[in-house]
Amino acid sequence: MSRYISILRGINVSGQKKIVMKELKSLYESLGFENVVTYIQSGNVIFDSVIENVENIQRTIADAIKTKYDFEVPVDVRTSNQFKQVLACLPFDEVNLEADGTKMLVTFLTQQPQNDAFDSLMEYVNEPEKLVLGDKCIYLHCPNGYGKTKLSNVFIEKKLNVLATTRNLKSVNKLCELAN
To answer: Are 140 and 73 in a shared domain?
Structure first.
């Protein structure tokens, strides 16, 4: 049995694609996942599964959501170790989780982007913002706040032509803690 973290894209945002976390937990349990824990309302779920193929897990969850709620939601699933590795590879020095936790973000990508697409995205980074490509993720530091950057999740998806979902550093850190 392996420990996984799934992050759903675009649920419970501005009243769209509403999913109650208690119901989401029950849905995961009905799929045979164990030790299911949800974190905040944005679709973060930690669980155990005997299934070793991440793509099968993603498809199973996405299909179950489509069946139950009649809308599609992109689902990113990573092992808890892969998630912890994302956190361990944070490229920014001297991170203060309290001060910077909502200004540093990780955008999880469904696939590694093409180099030329990433290079064109870099043209939109405005100082003091920082954007660093990781392994199927992007690290973003927005000292002036995420709401003030052009580098939104939707913008990144369009420029890189990949599906993505973004979480702030506080959430990524908490998901790693809960996965232990």
So the answer is: no
Residue that terminates a domain, selected from 60, 82, 104? 82
Tokens of 130: 């920082």
At position 66, the amino acid (one-letter code) is K
Same domain (yes/no): 65, 102: no
Q: Which residues of 6-30 are buried (b: 16+ CB within 10 A; e: fewer)?
A: bbbbbbbeeeebebebeebbebbee
34-39 and 104-109 strand pairing: unpaired
pLDDT tens figures, 81-116:
999 999 999 999 888 888 888 999 999 999 999 999
Quick: pLDDT tens for 19-36.
999 999 999 999 999 999
For residues 89 and 147, the answer to whether their CB atoms sit within 8 Å is no
Domain total in the chain = 2
Q: For tokens 């990433």, name the residue.
A: 118
Owning domain of residue 149: 89-179
